[in-house]
Design a protein that fits this description.
118 residues; mainly alpha; 0% strand
Length: 118
């Protein structure tokens, strides 16, 4: 089985082949200049600021609408309204029962006039 070289051995072999660079500090502001040059080469967005402000305004308006709906929910029916509706329904049922009773009385009124036929 072959022996695996350690990291120090590999680094020593690489340093023997490649000469190290002299220890020199980069120019001051080099990274900042690279970033500025890269920014200048980018194309400006077509609707950058306008689109950002309009989408932000839409999001703010949507949040305000949700807040208004959450604060003012649909008013609930009061107990009095529910009692009145139930009474009205009971009154309608009573009228129907009275109508059926009157129809039954009409039938009873003519029962004695009916003749039994075989």
């Amino acid at each position: 089985m072959a022996r695996v070289p350690t990291e120090q051995e590999l680094m020593a072999e690489a340093q023997a082949v490649i000469q190290p660079l002299p220890p020199v500090e980069p120019r001051p502001g080099f990274a900042a200049m690279v970033a500025l040059n890269a920014r200048d080469e980018l194309a400006p967005p077509v609707f950058g600021d306008w689109l950002r402000w309009s989408l932000g305004g839409l999001a703010l308006a949507g949040a305000a609408a949700v807040a208004v709906v959450a604060v003012n929910p649909r008013p609930h029916r009061s107990h009095d309204v529910m009692v009145a509706q139930r009474l009205e329904m009971l009154e309608d049922m009573t009228v129907m029962q009275n109508q059926q009773a009157l129809e039954d009385l009409d039938v009873v009124a003519v029962l004695d006039k009916l003749e039994a036929r075989p």
